[in-house]
Amino acid sequence: MPDPQNRPLPLAGKVVLVVGASAGIGADAARVFAADGASLMLVARSEGPLEKIAGELASAGHDVDHVTGDISVARDVARVVDRTVERFGRLDGAFNNAAMTQGGRLDQVPEEDFDRIMAVNVKGTWLCVREQVRVMLGRGAGSIVNVSSIGGLRGSSGLGAYQATKHAVIGLTRTAAHDFGPLGIRVNVIAPGPTETPMLAQTRLAIPGGVEARIAATPLRKAGTGTEVGATASFLLSDRASHISGAVLPVDGGFSA
User: Fold this and answer.
1) What pLDDT, in 10s, does the model give residues 201-224?
2) Residue burial 9-20, b: 16+ Cβ < 10 Å; e: rest
3) Catalytic: 135?
């Protein structure tokens, strides 16, 4: 939709794939990207919530489609990326946000839970980057934004498996920036602090008092919003960030300062 003040929209003309778009940060980021002019392919495992956000954006006049898929399954990720190119003709940017959390002391995490969170958060991010780069290489351009966490920058008790995956996402992103920068593709990572989402609600249950303690230690004294994370991602996806790659950008109200 056109900007009412006739300012150029930062993502106008760009096709962006939003992974994990059915709720929380992903849904809020999709709203930001659409308002900033992007055409969107929305991806999540659950059809109902995904269809709802896609319908909301389409009703507002935005160019949007959606497809279900499990990012821990290689053929699903390839299908999602191919569907994006079939629908829009190309892929300019991707926001890899899908993840799951896991509470509990490290020695108390069941092996099958550890394997599942690694499959989604780490392998899934790698599969997304691999397939997104596959189609971006043909144009020699693209921008990928992965989502880690401030839990990927430091340690704390009670979320060890989750934090291990978020450290891994940062390492994967930095390596991807080196691998694909010479080929015209930028790869960055955002590290949100406590953000008001359904996942934060799970964390509150898993670690009673832990979220409130982090907010109290945050200089801005509040949790973030998915819209604030989405606005940061929109900047990194846009040409305004044309010389930024391999960056780890906290969106945490100053918690990591």
Assistant:
1) 666 666 666 677 778 888 898 888
2) bbbeebbbbbbb
3) no
